[in-house]
């Protein structure tokens, strides 16, 4: 057994004050995202944890890549028949979280997920490398397979089948748009007195801003 009680870090890189934040969370997320990107220490600054409630009633989290964000919300892509896809179809209330440790920052987003339009999914799929397109077709995501060789042999066969051909997007693969209802920004501070600012969506489309105790 490992005792981790002595793992400690003092967070001292920045601060998050009400006097220096915008009225909506998307603008603040945009600022933080590009600051993390410019800092250069995060190889995949768009990596995020997606948490869902599974069909078995248990929560489950996994890391996926954010592919777009704007005033409408946050978009990622997946196999709709995967475990997460089925979970979202059953319960579209999900959570996204980002942890940019080099910036000592975390963002937690509660929202409602819905499928993007087929045009949006087609457009992104067409932008992917052929290998990624074929990977989306060959993988029955989350299903049990007999071996690694099984997947690789199927991929080789698809490469032959689609040689010199346009690879179409499978209908079971596409995007989810997560419309945020609540966005919390966490900035590490000394002595564990971290800054936590929460934006909550209001009926008039404005955002309520509150400071939370660390």
From TrEMBL:
Belongs to the pyridoxamine 5'-phosphate oxidase family. NCBIfam families: pdxH (TIGR00558), PRK05679.1 (NF004231). It comes from Flavobacterium sinopsychrotolerans. Pathway: Cofactor metabolism; pyridoxal 5'-phosphate salvage; pyridoxal 5'-phosphate from pyridoxine 5'-phosphate: step 1/1; Cofactor metabolism; pyridoxal 5'-phosphate salvage; pyridoxal 5'-phosphate from pyridoxamine 5'-phosphate: step 1/1. It is an enzyme of class 1 (oxidoreductase). Homodimer. Substrate binds at residues 8-11, 67, 124, 128, 132, 192-194. Residues 43-157 form the Pyridoxamine 5'-phosphate oxidase N-terminal domain. This is Pyridoxine/pyridoxamine 5'-phosphate oxidase.
């Amino acid at each position: 057994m490992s005792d981790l009680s002595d793992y400690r870090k003092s967070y001292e890189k920045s601060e998050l004050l009400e006097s220096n934040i915008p009225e909506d969370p998307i603008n603040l997320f945009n600022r933080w995202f590009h600051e993390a990107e410019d800092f250069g220490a995060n190889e995949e600054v768009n990596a995020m944890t997606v948490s869902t409630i599974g069909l078995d009633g248990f929560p489950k989290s996994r890391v996926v890549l954010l592919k777009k964000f704007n005033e409408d919300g946050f978009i990622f892509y997946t196999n709709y028949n995967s475990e997460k896809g089925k979970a979202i179809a059953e319960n579209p209330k999900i959570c996204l979280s980002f942890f940019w440790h080099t910036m000592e920052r975390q963002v937690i987003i509660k929202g409602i997920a819905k499928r993007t339009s087929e045009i949006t999914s087609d457009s992104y799929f067409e932008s992917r490398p052929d290998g990624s397109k074929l990977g989306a077709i060959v993988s029955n995501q989350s299903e049990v397979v007999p071996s690694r060789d099984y997947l690789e042999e199927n991929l080789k066969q698809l490469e032959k089948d689609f040689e010199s051909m346009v690879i179409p997007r499978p209908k079971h693969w596409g995007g989810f748009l997560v419309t945020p209802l609540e966005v919390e920004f966490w900035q590490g501070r000394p002595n564990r007195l971290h800054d936590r600012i929460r934006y909550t969506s209001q009926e008039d489309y404005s955002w309520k801003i509150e400071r939370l105790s660390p």
